[in-house]
Structures are given as structure tokens and as C-alpha cells.
Amino acid sequence: MSTFTDSEPYPQKFVPPLLADTWRRFEKGEKPAEEGPDGFPIYAEHPCRAEHSLLSQFIRETQKLIYTEVNPEKFSSGRIILALKDAEKIRVVFASLERLPWFWKTGVKNTTSMFGKGWSYDDPLYRWNIKPVLATLLRKPLPFTEPQFLQMVTALLEPPDEEGLSIIPPKTVLRLATSIWPMKIPTAILSALKQLETLLKSRHWGGTAEERKVLEGFAALSGKPQRPSVEKGEAWSDAALADLKQMSSDESAEWAALLAHCRAAESSKPAKKWLKEAGELVGRIGKPEFKAHVLRWFEMVAQPRSLHQEIHPNAQRPDPDLLICEQNATVLRGLAWCCAGWSDPEISSALSTLAEVSFKKVRWLGARCPRVGNACLYSLSTTSSEDAAAQLSRLDSTVKQPTAKKRIGKSLDAAATLTGQTRADLEEKSVPTFGLNLDGKLTRQFGTHAAELRMVNSRDVEIEWSTGDGKALKAAPAKVKRDHAGDLRQFLKLAKDIEKMLTAQRIRIERLLMTEREWGLETWQQRFLDQPLLAGIARRLIWHFKLGEQSALGAWLDGKVVDVHGKTLKWLAPEARVRLWHPIGFPVETVAAWREWLQTHEVCQPFKQAHREIYILTEAELQTATYSNRFAAHILGQHQFAALCGQRGWKYSFMGGFDFQATPTLELPAWDMAVEFWVEPAGELAASGVALHLATDQVRFLRAGEPLPLMEVPAPVFSEVMRDVDLFVGVGSIGSDPAWQDHGEIEGAGDYWRSYSFGDLNASAKTRKEVLERLLPKLKIAGQCSFDEKFLVVKGSLRIYKIHLGSGNIQMEPNNQYLCIVPDRSTATKGGDKVFLPFEGDRTLSVIISKALLLADDAKIKDASIVSQIKR
């Protein structure tokens, strides 16, 4: 087959010089090799022409298979190559490297491929079909001589962009070197391998576990010491390294062993052997000592890198200050795995916080560090404690990244299976109390001072300080900060944990409106009414009670459950069933009565319930049958829309000037349904290529991927879904932005903005109007206010103002001149907070009240931009 005998070596000086010269000629536009009539090089006078001929035949046979895995044994030429003698196989390796310049020229002429006859492409993808040939040949070490091996390594460094390293990977080169010379690698080859290592580092190798192992293998060849288990430059890793320096030699050695073990945490989940060894290493350190350090380190992961790296403002890459290097991410994953099975509230909280930080989105990257977040989920899901389950439930409500959310769901299912209960029961039973009493308060002593933590609504927590004699203080005194710094830090962290959990539980309870979940009376009372964290939410809601044929709506008032007339439901018994009330299907009079009850008793609900917007099928939807156009033809800000999707549990990914298209989707597994809200990019793109705006279209319900007739969708489900979509439009529409300006980037956007800003009221706006009609008589500005269809009209000293009840935008009489007032988010509800509202969460309602209070006294307005518009 070959022109050489088995013992004849490959010409020692043949490959590198000629290969380098070939590349130089190729860069000048010359042909890399003489070509035959079909475009393939013929190497007629080449000493390895037989091997080249076989390679050409193999490429011809596999040319069409550029997107499929190629197995050389399935092709006649491949079988011949694999059957060659070792010396001939070595020549095939060199011949393959020699062909690289030819591969880079324009594709083969007059050939038929999957793209059609005569097609050519500047990047002939079929060149990769030689890679499986070489991988098979080099699976077992070939008897390379020292000069031959040196020639091969040198050749791999020649082509531009190191094309050869894609054909023969560095991992293979390293394996061959250590296999051929197991005792001592020749000096010349070590030098060549050093050049290869330097090249890989210059190409920022080390981003994957395999790459890190290869680099460590190169380092081991030259006898280099191993790198520290954590790399400096991040807040948490700097703290870890500083802690190690302050330890005794014995303590430092124990920690070094554990961190080295964590550095080997390369798999997607830990093996039993890894966990067993980790447990032994933690035991040597001591659990209290381990806990004290990791709690602090985990908390510091949220901080940016300590070694700041500058980045150009317009650079389209992640902010390096927010990144976690690969080595540190692996160690963090290992430390999180070390916490698996710990029934410790502080550990569970720390894992939850670390997961949230890891899944937080970083621009140009996505989730900050999924591998660490997934490790935290694993440890929480394998811990059979209510605290761990509660933290998983919180993450399910707060984490927005779709892939992470899916993993969290699986982790919750795993935790439920571990404890032998349903997921819903697990989430309800595992809600922590945090030491709160039923009034939502917690008091802690700090020497002679006291701090009272209290929940002020379903979202926020306040801390009030006082002296030993009960004198109120505005903030934590200096003495507490100095003498009780550690305890104060833990107390403030507790306040943050309560806020996070409180928000998550409010969202979870509101989701119950879309289900038919029921409880026995005693279970309901234990899980909601008498649960310290949830009591403040549950006691402000209306519940539906049923016992046999008897049923009634009831709410908590003065220590008992009463109906809308204030009468105690004395007939309630342990056998009674309880569910969260949804107003759909109830008489208008019943809903109105409960709204009046809330107003009379000044009960502010944690979310709209009695005032909840109801959406029923319209005639148009009955005609379209399987889709709704109710919210089509709106223009939304994509970033606002994406944030709202995350808050409401919809899956959505940004769209823009790229091929990928995403459809916002809400999964409803309890109903075996899914919902799609069709949107598409509209107008200009941001520098990142993401569309700034979206145009809305249909809403569809699906079952098994097929459109579901709207008549078959349960009424509460349809209403809640359409309420979500109305929220997306109401909050995300450009018509709700008082500062939006038409720059012509979206055709017709200016007309849309004007029609939406001052157009007909949607369901939320109608509810808003009803609430304002009840509230205004109680305000000092009542005599200056009236209603005019879509507007709250406010008579000031200088002008008459019309505030649109849907968008909150303002027109001024007599010529409907637009008045732009952009509320500061920190002060938007300042005026609204002074007025009782029957529900939380409607920012627009608070903004309208704040604007009304401001404009009623317009002569005292000092903001120059507002005054100039009024007096224009």
C-alpha cells in the first residue's frame, strides 16, 4: 500500500518546514497542492501518496455527511486505513495534517453534496470527517519515534487559529506523550509541549472541566506545583484565603484537603463516594467551624469581584466584575454539596440565597453561575427538613430563569418524595415562622436596647429601635453596632429573609385562585390562619366554607370568622372544607357587599380578591373559538414585559434581530394545559440586538400541543390567564409611559400611544375608578375632584387636570395639553400611602392619588419642569 517499508521512518524534516511553507503560499493566494479534475489534491510525487489517496477517497465517501457522526468502520476506505500497519498509520496522521491548507481553500469543485451540485463553501465543513479517523487511529498509542512525535506537535502549532488542534486535540497529545514515555518524556518533546501549553493559555483555555484537567496535566509534566484550590480576585475567595492564613498549620491543612476535594466536584451531581469523603473531611474540621465559614463565604458571593476589570461601555460581553471563575465555581459547588442533608435553618437559608445569586441574570451571559445554583438545589432537595423545603418553595416564586425554574420544580418534587407527601402539602407545611408571633412581630434584645421587627404588609418589614426605658430611636444606636456587630448582622439578615419569604408566600397563595385546592378546617387553620408568617396574609382574605349542603363566604375579624354581615359562622366544624374564594361566578351583589365590608373595616387585602378583575368569554372569542384577540395590536416595552412574565410564572426569552423566536408560555400542569401569548419584535433594536418593543397578537390555550376551544377552559383559569395578559399590556404598554416619545421607529406608534394613554378603560381601570369613587369623599381634595368617563378631573388654582384612570397620564384644560409628570419609583406612592386602599399592589392607583394631591395644590409646585408645562 505504501512506498515505505514498516521500518522506514517518516522523513524527519519533512512535515514542519513544508507545512509552514504551504501555509505561507496559501496566504499569498497560491494553490496549496496540485489538484486533479475533481478538485482534490493528488500529491503525485509525494512519498506518502498512497496514504493521501486513501484520505481523498474517504473524504469523497463522507462528503455529504457534514452534520452527522462519521464512523470510519462503515466506509470501505476507512476500513482500509484502520487495517494499516502501525508505521503506515503514522504516515496517515502526518498526511492528514498536511491537508489542512487544502481544506481552507474554496470548496471542492463539480461535486454533489447535500447542498446541490456544484455548490462550494468557503468553510468546507466536511474537513472534520478526518477527525474521527485520527481519533480511532490514536485511540491506542502508536509507536512514534521521538523525532516523529516532535514533528507532529510542531505541526499542530503551525496553521492559523490552531486548526490542527481541532483535528488532534491537546488531550490526545498529552495522553500519547505520557503513554509512549511513561517514565521520562524527552527534553525536546517537553519543550514542544510547553509551547503547546503556552498557546492554550493564550487562547483562554480552562473554561471547562476537561480543559482544566488538560492544563493540569501539562503542568504536572514540568513538575509545577498545583494551583491553590481557590483563585483570588473574588470577594468570597479572598475571604477564604485570608481565613486560611489566620489558621494554625493543622487547621489550614484540613481545610486545604477539603477545598482540594471540592475542586474535584466536576460532575453534575455528587457520587456517594464523593459525599462520603466530603463528610469525613468536614468532620475533621468540625461542623460548627465549617458552618461559620461557609455561611460568610456564601453570603459574599453576591459581591462583585475585588480585582476590578475595566470594560468598554459598548462592549458586548458580560461585566467581568460579576463573573465567577471556573475554578472557584467548582469549589463553591463542592462546598454546597457538603451541606446536603443538613437540617439547619441557617444552612438552608444560605443555600437558597446562594442559589438565587447564582441564577441571577447577567447581561450577555444569562444566569450568573448555574452550576453553583444547581448544587444548592441538590443539597436542599436531599435535606428532609421543613426549612429546606420552604427555601425551595421561595426560590420557585422568586427565580425567573426558565431552566433554573424547571430544576427548582424537580427539586421540590424530589423533596416531597423524600418526605412522603405531595408537593403542595410540602410547600404549605414547611413555611417557616422565623420566631414571629401571630401579630407578625419579633423582638430582640441587644444589651440595654431592643429592636422590634414587624411586617407592615405582605411585602415589607420594618425595624423599630428603643432604649431600655422604652424611648423610640430612629435607627440602630452606635453602641449596638459596636458591641453587638455579629448579632446585629444576623438580625438584619433575618429581616431580609422574612421579606423574601413573605413575598414568595404571597405569590404562592395568589396562585391558589387558579386551582380548586381545598383543606379541612383544622388543616386550613393550622397552615394559614395560625401560621405566624402567613397569618397577616390569610386573615385579610375571604374564604369559601362548605359543610354538607351548607356554604358561606367568610373572613377573619376580631378573633373569629364572620360573614359579610358580621355574623360568626358558628356552624363550622372540623369536617368543613375550605378554599380560597374567587369572585367569578358569584352575583354582583355579593362581590359588591364584600367590597363594602373591606372598606368599612379598613381591611387592605394582600392582593386583589374582592376587587379582582373578572374576564369572561366575549362574542368575538366565541366566534374565533380557539384564540382571543382581546389584547392584540398593543406595543409593549420588551424588558418590562419579560420582567412581568417572570413574576407571573410565564416562560419567555428575549427576541430581537436574530433567528430565535420565543412565545411567552404559561404551563398549567394541574389542568393539563398550556397558554401561549403571541408577540413579535417591533421597531428598533438595542445595541445587544434585542428588540426594545414587542407587538402583541393572539392568546391561545393548548392541550397536548393542540389548540383548545375556549369554551372548554375552566372559567377561573380563563379569567386568571386573561388577567395576566391584561397586566402585561397595562404595565408594559408604551401608552402607560408618560415620558415615551415617538421617534418614528415604530410605524403608527404615536397614534397608538395617544389612543391608549387616553382611550377606553380596561378592566383594571374600571376597578380603579370604582375604588376612587369610594375613597375621594374622604380626602381633603374631594371638593376639587370629579369624574368624567375615563378621567379623574382635578381643579387646581392654575389649570384643570384630567388624569386618565387607565394609564395615569394627564391632560390639561382648556386644550387637552399633555402634562408629563414622571413619578419617582421611590416616592410614587407617597401620597397614596396616606390613604386607605382596599388592596396592595396597584401602583397606578397610588400614582393617580399622588398626582391628584399634587395638582390640587398646583400653585405650590416647585418642580421647574412641571411648572413650565402648566404655565406654557
Architecture overview:
The N and C termini lie far apart (95 Å). This protein is 44% helix and 12% strand. It folds into six domains: 154 residues, no CATH class; 186 residues; 60 residues, no CATH class; 70 residues, no CATH class; 136 residues, TATA-Binding Protein (2-Layer Sandwich), CATH 3.30.310; 109 residues, no CATH class. The chain is built from 33 helices and 24 strands. Helix 17 packs parallel to helix 19, helix 18 packs parallel to helix 20 and helix 19 packs across helix 21. The protein has 872 residues and is of the alpha+beta class. Strands 14, 15, 16, 17, 18 and 19 form a six-stranded antiparallel β-sheet that branches. A five-stranded antiparallel β-sheet has the order 9-13-10-11-12. The protein has a five-stranded antiparallel β-sheet with strand order 20-21-22-23-24, with helices on one face. The relative contact order is 0.04.
Count of strand segments: 24
Report the span from N to C terminus: 95 Å
Largest sheet: 6 strands, antiparallel
Look at the structure and give the mean pLDDT: 85
Strand content: 5-15%
The Rg value, from CA coordinates, equals: 35 Å
Count of domain modules = 6
Number of DSSP helical runs: 33
The helix-and-strand class reads: alpha+beta
Helix content bin: 40-55%
The low-pLDDT segments are 1-10, 12-17, 106-123, 826-832
What would the principal axes of the Cα set say about the shape? globular
